[in-house]
Structure formats: C-alpha cells, structure tokens
Amino acid sequence: MNLSPPRGTRDFPPDVFRLRNWLFSHFREVARLFAFEEYDAPVVESEELYTRKAGEEIVDQLYTFEDKSGRKLALRPEMTPSLARLVLQKGGALSLPIKWFSMPQCWRYERMTRGRRREHYQWNMDVFGVDDVSAEAELLAAVVTLFSRLGLSSADVQIRVSNRRILQTLLEDAGIAPDQFGPVCILVDKLEKLPQEEVSAQVESLGVDVAIVERIVEIGTMKSLDDVAGVLDEERAGITELRRLFSLAGQYGISDWLVFDPSLVRGLAYYTGVVFEAFDLSEGLRAICGGGRYDRLLSTFGGKDIPACGLGFGDAVIEELLREKGLLPECRPNVDDVVFCFDAQLREPAMLIASQLRQRGRSVDLILEDKKMKWAFKHADQAGASRLVLIAPDEWSRGVVRTRDMSSGEESDLAVGDL
User: Fold this and answer.
1) Which domains does the chain have, with CATH numbers?
2) Reported pTM
C-alpha cells in the first residue's frame, strides 16, 4: 500500500500543523486589525457554480463527481463563487458595505511547480458595497501588513498593479467584440508563461487579428501611467483610478511596495477594474497572492451586481518564500505542565492534580505509562513544557509535590493548592 498522500496534496502531522497554525494566526490577526469578519462555506459545491464561464482554465482543473442522487458536484477551486452565492442568498438582509475573510482549502487539478499544489489553503479578503479604489487600497495595505509581520520587506516582495480597463479599452479600440474580451484576457494572461507566437495562434483561433497581441505587448512594456495615458483615453482605461490608488497608497505608507505594470491581466474573466499580484523579487516562485475588482460578478449568477473587490493569498507559496529566507519559526509544542508520578500507586493522585490544573486553564500532559525519571525530563523538554510536576512517595506523604522549572532548572516543593 502506498502510504503517501495523493499527488499534489499534503499531510499535516503535528510539527507541520503547528507551522500552519502560526501562519493562519497571522492571517486572522491582520483580518482583525482591518475589521474583517470570518465566514466559511462547504468545500463541496454544485459544479455549475464554477462552469458558468466556459473557457476559463479553472473549468478544466475541477475535481468533479456525482453524489448518490446524481447531482454534479465539485471540490471548490476558489472561494469567490461560494462568496457570491452566499451574498446573493442573504440578499437585502446584508448591511453594506461588508468586509469578510475566509481561509478555505481549495482544490485544482493542475500542473505542479514549486509552491503550486493541487490543494492549498487560501486567505481571502473581500469587500462588497464600496464603489471606489479606497477598497483596493485597504486590501493592499492588509497584504503589506501581513508581509511586514512575517519579516518581509519591499526589498523582498513587489506588488504589481494595473487595471483591466487598459486591456478592455485597447480591445474596444481595435474593434474586438465584447463577448471575446474574456477569452482574450485569459490568453493574454499566458504571455508570461507561453511564447508570444503560441498565444498569437490561440488568439487567431478566436477570429481575432493577431496584430492585437503585438499592440498588447507594446503597451505592456510601458513603465508609467503617463505613458499609457498618452496612447489610451485616461478615463476609459482606468488610469484616473490608478492615479488615485497610488495616491492612497502614499497615505497608507505602502508606496514603496507597489509598481505599475500594464502587462498584468489576471486570468479570471470576472475582473473588471484594478488588478494586482505580489511576487518575490528573486522571481523564483509563482505569484504569492493576487486580486482585484469584480463589480459584475453577481449578475453572472442571475443576481443584481454590487461593487466588490477581493484578494486571495495561498499558504504554499508564502511558506516556500519564508523558508528560503530563513524566516520560518521553530514552532515547538506548547505545554504548561508535564505531570509524572514515580510509581503506579501514585497514578490516581497524578490524575487528580492534572484535572485540577486543567480546570485552571493550564495545558497538562499527564504521563500515563510506567516510565523512568530520566525519560520524564527528556519528554518534558521535547514537549516544550514550562514545568515538570513530580509526584514522589515522600513528598506526597507530606502533602506536597516537587516542581521543576524547565527553563531555569530550579526545583521547589509546593502544596497542591499552590501549583
């Protein structure tokens, strides 16, 4: 029997789980600092929730199956459709704006590279009901806050920012039909991954003039907002929005983390405005996180649109980056007390003491087997215990137990009520 987990997935034994909890605690704390509320949804959703936009890469990466009633279901590949479903379900009962976050496990059957798995956890933050780039600025400030808490600086990570309306304006000016905008966006997003000739061939297969690809590449190499504004209408292309966003970034003190990159598109068709992705500057990893504005998402589910934007931040890539830079902590077990009795006759008193300590809120590891004193000391050290409580015949006959401070090595006798 193969004892490895399925390809592209992970086990989380305690040492790995402690590290995961450490990272998740930072996700939750940053969300708390920015007053986002946590939510969750089923890991299994109706398949149609993800297949409403045929042609998106994500459709081909679904883990799908039928339940015993013949319903077509899928493991969630991302959280945004579930969030949209939940917002529509709540309807008018929601008091806008809302700021919600989640940390779901997501599944995609995709080609694996460093930092890319077929399952991963993703920290999501979304804002519904704010029709202004101040919402994007808040999300970017949260991302930078997280990076800073993890020990990263703007010398390590760069957040590239653009606006999908740049590409939309370019395509409109070239006479591209609106229904082709999404498919072309998905292909343009592959320009960094595939040769330009291959992307051009796929664009041509859509019935679109391949010259548009060269024009997109030309504008994608521009370095400033003014350069793009010189060839596209500033308002239509979203340059005005980007100018305001960069101005707000200055107020947040995060300007040195951001860079304008008109080649950035993002592969999901539902983005409508500002988009962003964070990369490590060594460029050894895929994007660390990404997000943007999706004001017209709800109408794809038959609902009324609400202005919205959000971000997704995977756990696998950031762990790789932190490991590479030596920033992952040693997450040892955290036990307050190890309780050890010298012989079987003292086992019941040991259980009594352990129960009393637990009632006081202390984490207690009660040694249940017959072990030697040397083993107990070693175990207490490995367990990360702050104190070893020893129940010996002589001390117990006097109504006391011996304690050892595992940091200082200092020992003392205490009455049970003083533990």
Assistant:
1) 14-324 (3.30.930.10), 337-418 (3.40.50.800)
2) 0.89
Condensed to tens digits (0 to 9), the pLDDT of residues 165-188 reads 998 898 888 887 777 777 777 777
Across 191-216, average pLDDT: 78
> pLDDT value at position 54?
46
pLDDT at 14 over 50: yes
Q: What is the 3-state secondary structure (H, E, C) of the chain?
A: CCCCCCCCCCCCCHHHHHHHHHHHHHHHHHHHHCCCEECCCCCEEECHHHHCCCCCHHHHHCCEEECCCCCEEEECCCCHHHHHHHHHHHHHHCCCCEEEEECCEEECCCCCECCECCEEEEEEEEEECCCCCHHHHHHHHHHHHHHHHCCCCCCCEEEEEEEHHHHHHHHHHCCCCHHHHHHHHHHHCCCCCCCHHHHHHHHHHCCCCCHHHHHHHHHHCCCCHHHHHCCCCCCCCCHHHHHHHHHHHHHHCCHHHEEECCCCCCCCCCCCCEEEEEEECCCCCCCCEEEEECCCCHHHHCCCCCCEEEEEEEHHHHHHHHHHCCCCCCCCCCCCEEEEECCHHHHHHHHHHHHHHHHCCCCEEECCCCCCHHHHHHHHHHCCCCEEEEECHHHHHCCEEEEEECCCCCEEEEEHHHC
Instruction: Look at strands 119-128 and 289-293 and give their pairing.
Output: unpaired
298 band by pLDDT with thresholds 50, 70 and 90? very high
CA–CA distance from 248 to each of 185, 253, 255, 365 (Å)? 27, 9, 9, 51
238, pLDDT greater than 50: yes
Which one is predicted more confidently, 187 or 140?
140
> Which of 66-75, 180-189, 309-318 shows the lowest mean pLDDT across its residues?
180-189
Residue 353 is predicted with a pLDDT of 95
Chain mean pLDDT for the chain:
91
